[in-house]
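Schema walk-through. Below, the input block comes first and the output block second. Nothing else is stored per chain. Lengths vary across the set, and this one has 314 residues.
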Amino acid sequence: MRSISPYLDTAFSFDSPGSLAEAGVLDARSARVMGSATGHYQAQTVHGGLQYFDCNLQFPEPLRIDKVLPQSLCFVQVFDGAWQHKVDGKLNSYAPGRLHMLGLGESLEAQDQLPANSHARMAGVRLAGDYLLELVRDDLQLKPLLALSADGMRFDQLPQWPTVSRLFQQLYLSPYTGGLRRLHCESLSLAIVLELANHLIGHRFTRKPRDRGWRDLAIETRRQLDANLSATPTAATLARQLGVSETTLRRAFSQEYGRSILQYVRQQRLELARALLLERRWQVSQIAYHVGYANPANFCHAYKAYFGHPPGAE
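--- output ---
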């Protein structure tokens, strides 16, 4: 990251409680760390002002981190455990299994605080404010991405996002080392930024004005589908809620995303299922029910047809 960020590039693995203040996670000139941990942490600048990080840490004693965060944009996927901090006096809580976004439009004081015996396994990407400005200068279509960190602080828990969750899982489980790992982290981190930008921006500058109504309709349909993957509403139900005909809804969605609503839901469910399988916490049948399949056998068949191997192979 740029020097204005308190987060340093580092990596450590503690088999027994080690001091986080001495681990080089944060710049001592702009942060104060109190507490110890076991487990691993790594952070690596992969492209200009873009940094990837992940961790799997246990905190045997209370943790407190006082720091100043610069203008930036951060996306965090929490796999297990939890995290929380106060930014400019406002408490932000990160829930397990969810994707979160923190946008800062200016430098703000922040305090991370966790009680003893807490646990956090998560991954994320941080975009420096000047890196965001460079992106916008190169392509004005990305201006709405900069707007996420335009004023004060913005913290959001995003809908279930199987594609992004899968990218974070691939980063977390990267089999590479050295230069190959850096290339792997760079490519997937940029893929995450691209996926988020495409969804959040909604291609609002890339189509003709007359298409705006259909595009907005498709984006809202996708948002509602992503938020209810285990029990997705029917196209007819969505059409009634959005005040259009079912035919219009289906055509708008197909035009925007290049696939039918049914194809999109099936793909997102299977992507989410794979992310859950890689966490190794649930049985195949439990995951099948969780992602909306009434029959585990049908789930296994669909999974093999999509990925080329049965879910048990994960």
